[in-house]
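Reading a protein record of the kind used here takes only a little practice. To see the layout at work, look at the sequence and tokens printed below.
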Amino acid sequence: MSQPETIVRKYLTALKDPSTLRDDDAIQEAESALGDESDPIERLKLQQKLAELNAPSMNAIEDEFVVHAKAWADEAGLTGKAFEAEGVPGATLRRAGFDVAKGRKRGAASSTPRKRSSRTTQEDVINAMPKSFTLKSLREATGGSPAVVRKAVDAEIEAGRVADAGPDPDHSGPGRAATLYRRT
């Protein structure tokens, strides 16, 4: 078995069960050395070593994986998809040199085109304006975007056909009342 294959195997195993990175023999050795050590600085160093041995980091094995995985996979005829299926994160595969997609996967293209919703124009919003309304009620009634509704109301205010009637007197609940508009 080659060294790159051993590294890939070790990384994949650690992904599934991180406790496999623990070296119990080294932990026992460090605990024994700690029990025999009287120098406070050496004890500190051994405590740190023991902490690292008890909670091994995936970073070191991941870095080794990144260095060796692509060349080994090319030689073995494996793709990034196979590694993804085994739980290797896309970011790690990209670091290793695999060509994998970023973010969400897109669904398969449909043979029937998707129907687009019709665009609500400023004119549609103006024609749908009731005698009194708030921006929200007008948006809900027309399906227009906030920008289109606001633009239509501003145009009608400028033309003198709509007036700002102040805060909605029927407002209840937290927050400030919406502005009520009236056709003139």
